[in-house]
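for the writeup, i need someone to sanity check this before i put it in the appendix. the sequnce is what the collaborator sent (i think, or maybe the updated version? ugh). structure was predicted straight from it, no edits. if anything looks off just tell me and ill rerun, i have time this weekend
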Amino acid sequence: MKIVRFTAVFIILALGAAAASTPTPTAAQHPIEQDTDGDGLPDGWEEEYWLDPNDPNDADLDYNNNGLTNIEEYKKRYDPRDKDTDNDGLSNYAESTGLFGFFTDPLEEDTDEDGLDDLEEMVNRGCRRSGCECVDTGNRTQIDEIYPDKSDRNWARDQVRKLRQKYPYELDPLNRDVDRDGLEDGDEISHKTSPNVADSDLDGLSDGDEVHNYKTDPKERDTDEDGLTDYEEVFGVFGFFTNPKDKDTDNDGIYDGEEVLGFGYAPISPSEHILTYEEFTSGDAYSGEYVTLKARVEKIKKEGAGLKEYWLMLEPLNEKLGCSGTSSGSGARAVATVRSRYHYEVQHDFALVDDRFDLTLKEGDTVVVVGEAQRLKGSTRELVVDGKGKIYLLLSPGEASTRWLPSTKYVKAKVSLPLPTATPTATLKPSPSPSSSSTPTPAATASPKPRETETKAAEEPGFEAVFGVAGLLAAAVAFLVRWERR
């Protein structure tokens, strides 16, 4: 009897263990059909994304507000529970309902295809206008729809702040060229121009025309640094149509600016920059670099002994310095420190003669100075004429005929042309449509990838399995009790 009893118990327990280890479906599904409810969605896919394999109606539902039904999500291999299908940082709900003022495409991270994601174009929209802000980081309803897949809302706020610093412009996710200059917003960021200003360098040519048509630098008024702005060269403002990308169009050894405007309006080697008096004295532009400056000698200061160095106190060409020794416009003055030996010529009224340049200089002379620009100190900015620097004396034909000159090597003819205007009077409109070959194509938007989901609850033993084992054990106990009574 005992052997029979223990054998029965063993068999019952073995059956219970086998039942517990056998996977039990979460719902009654067809054992040989992949799609129990016939809705076009495989049972396994429905279970993976928390749909009901026994409900044929859920195939036509849209759980994540991206405009796609579940059956469409399945066909495109998307995640039907993904709150941000295109991974642009904006929830599908925000894009499809226009929460931030724009109805953008939840399936395209760059709706207007300008090379910038939708969120990147929204973060600063309206921020510069009082009382108007597109993305309000203090609004919980709004911030919950930014990077919806992240649980940390402070992290989302920080990301918005970083994007505002990276893209400090007012853009539009539905308009690929906000300033209508012919250069798309994403290309403006790449070229480091302003997508809010049609002519970033204020040379009279739109950014789009400079990039697509003239191939000039949209950030530089004078691309080839010849003393003429790109606009002046392209449209022949002074009567000559020159190449804005070639500082010496006719290859005669003289810069275009010098030929058109006269000597001193183009950079002179070793300098690559030319500055007006006002530009030089208004700040620290090109400090540590060689620059070309045209000015008038207001006073000459000489070294007490040694005759190795002297100073030219300079003033602007178009005005006299005030009583304080500064220009009325800039509030500062320019001084050229000339590190050259000099002597006095007794036979010519003790004229100061620079031994290196073989020049006679006096107060009131017009000079072109090439030297290393120093930083502005107080109300004075220094230009050091060292071994690489140069000084040129500009004389009219009448002045040259009466002036004693040891040499004419560093003497140039003074021309009476008007100074070039700082800014052209009109800005050209961009070309209607740049050629397709020159128009950059936005980078392709990558198709969103289905995200990995958490471990499915269906993989763990279900309640049905637990109750099945309990039922078997109860039956075994009842059988043993009846056996004992017999």
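The two ends are 11 Å apart (CA to CA). The CA atoms of residues 210 and 445 lie 27 Å apart.
thx in advance!!
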